Amino acid sequence: MRLRAASTVAGLMLLAACATTVDPERAAQACEERARAAQGPTGEVTLGFNSQSGSFAGATVGLSSDFLTGKDPVEVYENCVFQRTGMAPIRPPVLRQM
Q1: Domain that holds residue 38
Q2: Which residues are 54's β-sheet partners?
Q3: DSSP states along 25-80
Q4: pLDDT tens for residues 48-88?
């Protein structure tokens, strides 16, 4: 009897997890960021000066695994949206020109 109750509870939890919906627009926005990272290296450079400590400089560079493996950014976007929503994207990605 306990096994039946435990399996029923587990089944209900699984159904609840599947019923959780993800907003397609929020998924598209998050997946666009991932697709942009797949287009190439990202980074920034910071240069400055202040009266207390003098000059300063810094740099960061980011490389996504999608870029390193040569994945198509549009394909990355489409797969990402599908994984998050279970549906095809509602719109094409907005990516920067390379």
Answers
A1: 23-98
A2: 50
A3: HHHHHHHHHHHHHHHS-EEEEEEEEETTTEEEEEEEEE--HHHHTT--HHHHHHHH
A4: 999 988 999 999 999 999 999 999 999 999 999 999 999 99
First to last CA, the chain: 62
- The number of folded domains in the chain is 1
Does 48 map to a domain?
yes
Residue 33 within any structural domain of the chain: yes
> Which amino acid is located at 70 in the chain?
G
Between CA 64 and CA 68 the distance in angstroms is: 6
- Once rounded to an integer, what is the mean pLDDT over residues 17-28? 78
Residues in CB range of 78: below 8 A, 6 or more apart: 88, 89
